[in-house]
Amino acid sequence: MADDLIALARKLDITVEFLSDCVEYSAVRLVEIEDRVDLQEDSMLRLRRLQRVCNTFDVDACIGSMLLDMADRIAELERDIRRLRPGEDRRQGGHL
Length: 96
Known about the structure:
The protein is mainly alpha-helical. It has one domain: Multidrug-efflux Transporter Regulator, Chain: A, Domain 2 (Orthogonal Bundle), CATH 1.10.1660. The protein is built from five helices and two strands. The chain has helices at about 1-10, 15-25, 45-55, 60-85, 90, and strands at about 30-35, 35-40. It has a two-stranded antiparallel sheet. A hairpin with a 2-residue loop joins strand 1 (about 30-35) and strand 2. Helix 3 (about 45-55) packs across helix 4.
């Protein structure tokens, strides 16, 4: 598995340590494809977002993952509010 992580980290142009942390904290999911390990389809975008958050705020993958989860949840709640109050966001300039 270690060799697979090294190869995947090289392919993604990230450090092995960062990828290992992301996997350890379940921030991204790996899948086995034939004889190699790769990221699950939806994990690539999350990995890039996580990398930006970690670099911007100088936090580790665990904290970065929590920040992303909270940001995603906030975005989901904002969508729900807009759906429940149609027309309201137009009167307020589109911001909640």
